[in-house]
Design brief:
Structural class of chain C: mainly alpha
Order of helices and strands of chain C: HHHHEEEHHHHEHHH
Number of helices of chain C: 11
Largest interface: A-B, 65 and 64 residues
CATH class of chain A: Mainly Alpha
Oligomer: heterotrimer
Helix content of chain C: over 70%
Number of strands of chain A: 5
Number of strands of chain C: 4
Strand content of chain A: 5-15%
Distance between the termini of chain C: 55 Å
Chains: A mainly alpha (365), B alpha/beta (385), C mainly alpha (294)
């Protein structure tokens, strides 16, 4: 059991890491010390951190496996990009439009998460995983055949092709099936990304601390016990799941407003991406929010920094991923690390006491 | 337990931050042209990215061996984008850090649009070998080597109509692919003006592209004589195999994506007998230039080049022509070079593998004549009008 | 007429899913892990056949034999190196993620060895297609062989698990690893054996998949792998007949949704049916209901 104070301190450290990382990066950018690659990666990094933290809410706190997280990101990305495209000439103040876009992405993804969660959260384990995967694929498939255009008469919809929209000659196809949305304004910035990370952390960390959060975690630990003390299982499961989806939607908003060409491909919104986000969560430690942040950053940067290896890049990436998993999770490796650490500690006795405290606090969830 | 995780994480992130600084500031005072390339070399679309990578590489080696452009050598760096728009922008940024001053790529349309939105800010001269959607060339710094999708769709419909190839046409296309759905849309529009009917238009997606029995049967049930395939050759080879094993006797008609089908290792080319395609390049063409290219490519990379490789090869020679025309120098900044080459592009006329006397308009689209080919005796043969 | 023809097409597509799903379900049933790398083992097996038969022009039977041996060795190695150290890990998700890493690894190794270009696989089935109703209906030799293989494998596996000592050991390990060990069962050996069988099945599945759909690339296995995984869940994962039934039904649904509803939305429809089935029967068609103890 840990005290309320130590948990608060632990959370403060998490916020602190984000703020310090932001400050360091900003200084480096101002000083012109940072590569274009790194600069271009800042916004995607923010999006992936939010995704990892939000999925950790489902996987770590609620204890359910979801393989459809990218689907919610996709919903957030497309609804917000659609909104930004149609209001580009109506709302000319960028920050107002973008704030609205974020809210819309949040609500749309949350709503879809709620609607999907209602029937499927009764399922368990791998069956829930496969159903969420199925929903993710359905979302992607539907968006790929969705055509929406705008002309003076208003919006036109079609599920067939762009010709079937019957647009006036000067009409504009906004969502063009597989071509998706082109020309979304590039509103995402590193600062907004970091603010959104902090808001996400605030929501998730406070939820964990709250009465609701404890109810959710009791469901994770033992459903029957939780039910017997009168916790409304469905309500809390839905709350966590929909909130997790909504936050993924926010990440989608960041993602879509960073690229001028938004398409729903198997690569970015398919099960591959959902699995990638799950990798962030598991590698960082299930239920460990700070771990999710760190592993999302590392695993997003890793393939980019391996670019020098050209053909061997993804091979090395796969090997590193397997090695990190074994190193982090295998009981034998854990024992070996502890022994190694003890030896190290012997030399830095003073430091032991400090790390011990921190380590102890974050070890348990 | 987590202590160690934290330590390793910290060490790793530090290493990464340090690594992110390396590679800065290499560009200044360069005395070579640094050409960058982008395309998928891993993932399901790796065939196309690898072809572009090798095609450009071959051209650059040739040029360097012959003394470079105006005596200036070329350096080349190709980056993987995994067919992902975001990764493509990352690849672009990585190439900028390397000091790239001219870009060949990206290979695919979606990635090309995403990168073009970045390259316009740097006024980087960009020529995409195979990004075929119209959105690719929305900015004035981007030029295409291949035809645009609408151009191909309209061209194919017009060809089928004018030459009375068939009166009932079925289409099988990839609704999850930009290239394929782009061509299909324009084909369907233009078909309304042509003396043939589209009797069935069936799609497949990236997630279900192994079985085509339904699409073929629908074509047969609706009495189609010809099946139009605005798709890439990997799927087309499956369609041809399945059509043959089910005993259908269609004529097949494709666009440039079909080119390369005879190069599929171990493919029974008799299945492709009679397939017609509208393409600017054919690996079996009899002119000396194409034959030399194919032989050199096979010697260097062990594969038969497809149209992507030919487009990339041409792209490099187009850059060479533009540099020679404008007298651009590697010491110019990226933006100055961009302006110089943009100006030169509209005055060029380049004879390449993928077209004779190619010219460009300021909007970036290419003018060249597609050739109608038919596969005969396992070879591409030009159809004479 | 066209209905029957669609049905036949559905069954032939389904039979390919079924044979892949058998391997999936076998491993899941015993080791309780989703082996995401299964599809990539399939791809490796197909490349082995291709190399030996088409590149080296050696006889087909040799290619098949080498492919089965290679996949078996590959399966055992993967299990020993990447999965076994994580068997006692505090979360079962750890091994799932490692399996994904192995999947990436196999794809990229294949990309480096064989290149990205599509290879056209020569069918290992020499049986002529069966023509019915005056040539109006065709059943390909591949379909007949695949379905026969599925049925034979299903029967052999069921007999093996229920009648042999090694099979009983597998059942015991799947029920309770600790108790099995106390009964003197070699848990590591049994799980290795499971992976060996599962991977040998993958080799067979690879040959039949590529015989039916002959475009071979380093990513050939991944999408059919996921579909087969869906099929296995559909039928009740862990159940051997369930995998067969799930595969066939999935194939039929996929073809029918393309034929009668929309070819663009067929993926969505397949998954929608899956969801509905799982909502009605939460453990799949033949899955066992696990009673939760208080």
């Amino acid at each position: 059991m840990k005290t309320f104070v130590s948990k608060n301190k632990d959370n403060l450290i998490t916020y602190g890491i984000v703020v310090v990382a932001y400050a360091v990066m900003e200084i480096l950018i101002k000083a012109g010390l940072i590569s274009s690659l790194m600069q271009g990666l800042l916004v995607p990094l923010c999006a992936y951190v939010i995704l990892a933290v939000s999925l950790n809410l489902t996987v770590g706190i609620l204890g359910e496996l979801s393989l459809g997280h990218a689907g919610f990101m996709c919903v957030g990305a497309f609804t917000s990009a659609f909104f930004s495209k149609i209001t580009m000439n109506v709302i000319t103040v960028t920050w107002i439009r973008f704030t609205l876009a974020i809210v819309i992405g949040f609500i749309a993804a949350g709503l879809i998460g709620f609607l999907i969660g209602m029937p499927v959260l009764r399922l368990k384990g791998d069956y829930l995983a496969i159903v969420t995967l199925a929903f993710g694929e359905i979302i992607k498939n539907v968006i790929n055949v969705l055509y929406i255009g705008k002309d003076s008469k208003g919006l036109h919809f079609s599920m067939k092709d762009a010709v079937a929209l019957n647009l006036e000659p000067e009409g504009d196809v906004i969502i063009n099936g597989a071509q998706g949305i082109t020309g979304t304004p590039k509103n995402s910035t590193f600062t907004i990304g970091v603010i959104l990370i902090l808001i996400t952390l605030f929501i998730v960390l406070n939820l964990i601390k709250s009465r609701d959060g404890r109810a959710i975690m009791s469901i994770r630990d033992n459903v029957i016990a939780a039910e017997s003390v009168g916790i409304n299982i469905t309500k809390y499961k839905l709350l966590a799941f929909a909130l997790s989806a909504a936050l993924a939607g926010v990440a989608g908003v960041l993602y879509s407003h960073n690229l001028s060409s938004l398409m729903a491909t198997p690569k970015n919104f398919g099960y591959n991406m959902s699995i990638m986000i799950l990798v962030f969560v598991v590698l960082g430690g299930i239920g460990n929010i700070r771990g999710s942040i760190i592993s999302a950053v590392i695993l997003t940067l890793l393939p980019e920094l391996l670019r020098g290896l050209s053909n061997y890049r993804m091979l090395i990436y796969a090997i590193v991923l397997i090695a990190m998993m074994l190193f982090n999770w295998a009981p034998k490796a854990q024992a070996f690390r502890d022994r190694l650490l003890d030896k190290l500690m012997f030399w830095k006795k003073k430091k032991v006491t400090v790390t011990e405290k921190e380590g102890g606090a974050s070890d348990e969830r | 337990m987590k202590k160690f995780t934290k330590l390793t994480a910290l060490a790793l992130s530090l290493a990464m931050v340090v690594a992110s600084f390396t590679g800065c500031g290499a560009a200044a005072g360069a005395n070579t042209f640094k050409i960058g390339g982008i395309g998928p070399t891993t993932g399901g679309a790796a065939i196309y990215g690898t072809a572009v990578k090798n095609g450009a590489d071959l051209a650059i080696k040739e040029i360097n061996a012959a003394g470079g452009i105006n005596g200036v050598q070329i350096e080349y760096n190709f980056q993987d984008d995994e067919l992902d728009n975001e990764k493509s922008v990352n690849a672009y940024n990585a190439l900028k850090d390397w000091g790239m001053n001219i870009l060949v790529g990206p290979t695919t349309s979606g990635c090309c649009v995403a990168v073009a939105a970045e390259s316009v800010n740097d006024n980087m001269f960009q020529i995409t070998p195979s990004g075929s959607s119209v959105d690719c060339i929305a900015n004035d710094n981007v030029f295409q080597v291949c035809f645009t999708d609408p151009n191909q769709g309209i061209g194919a419909a017009a060809y089928i109509g004018q030459n009375n190839v068939a009166s009932k046409v079925a289409v099988i296309y990839d609704s999850s692919d930009v290239y394929s759905s782009g061509i299909y849309t324009k084909f369907a529009q233009e078909a309304a003006n042509q003396p043939f009917d589209i009797v069935s238009a069936e799609a497949f997606t990236a997630d279900s592209k192994t079985d085509f029995s339904v699409q073929l049967q629908k074509a047969a049930d609706n009495g189609a004589e010809l099946v139009f395939l605005p798709i890439y050759y990997t799927e087309a080879s499956l369609i041809l195999t399945q059509a043959a094993s089910a005993g259908y006797n269609f004529k097949f008609f494709g666009c440039d994506g079909l080119d390369g089908i005879l190069g599929v290792e171990n493919f029974d080319t008799s299945l492709a007998e009679g397939v017609m395609l509208l393409t600017p390049f054919a690996a079996d063409a009899k002119d000396e230039k194409t034959q030399k290219f194919v032989a050199d490519y096979q010697a260097a990379y062990g594969d038969t080049p497809n149209q992507f490789a030919a487009d990339a090869y041409d792209a490099v020679y187009i850059i060479k022509a533009a540099i020679e025309k404008s007298g651009a120098k590697p010491s110019m900044s990226v933006s100055e070079l961009g302006d110089a080459l943009k100006g030169a592009m509209t005055q060029l006329s380049v004879d390449g593998l993928t077209g004779a006397a190619m010219t460009w308009t300021a909007d970036g689209a290419v003018n060249k004549a597609p050739k109608a080919m038919e596969i005969k005796d396992g070879n591409y043969a030009l159809i004479q009008d | 007429m066209s209905f029957i023809s669609y049905l036949i097409n559905g069954i032939s597509l389904g039979s390919v899913y079924a044979i892949i799903a058998l391997g999936y379900t076998m491993v899941y049933g015993i080791a309780k892990m989703l082996n995401f790398a299964h599809g990539d083992v399939i791809m490796f097996g197909s490349y082995a056949v291709f190399t030996i038969v088409s590149t080296l022009s050696l006889p087909t039977w040799l290619g098949m034999l080498v492919s089965i041996i290679l996949c078996t060795v590959l399966g055992i190695t993967i299990e020993a190196v990447a999965y076994r150290p994580l068997r006692q890990a505090s979360s079962s998700l750890a091994v799932l993620i490692t399996a994904i890493g192995v999947s990436y690894l196999l794809q990229n190794v294949a990309l480096l060895i064989f290149g990205a270009n599509t290879k056209s696989f020569s069918s290992v089935v020499s049986m002529a297609p069966l023509k019915l109703a005056d040539g109006g209906l065709t059943i390909t030799g591949e379909t007949i062989v695949t379905i026969s293989c599925c049925i034979v494998i299903m029967i052999v596996l069921t007999l093996f698990v229920n009648k042999t000592k090694a099979g009983q050991a597998m059942l015991a390990v799947s029920e309770d690893k600790g108790a099995a060990q106390l009964m003197g069962i070699n848990v590591n050996g049994t799980i290795s054996l499971t992976f060996a069988i599962g991977s040998a099945l993958a080799a067979v599945a690879g040959m039949l998949l590529c015989s039916a759909y002959p475009a071979l690339t380093p990513y050939t296995g991944s999408m059919p792998g996921i579909k087969a995984f869906v099929a296995a869940v559909f039928g009740g994962i862990g159940s051997i007949p369930g995998a067969f039934i799930g595969g066939i039904i999935l194939g039929i649904i996929e073809i029918f949704s393309k034929a009668y509803i929309s070819s663009q939305l067929s993926d969505a429809i397949v998954f929608l049916v899956l969801i509905i089935v799982l909502l009605v029967k939460p453990t799949g068609i033949l899955g066992k209901k696990i009673q939760e103890k208080v």
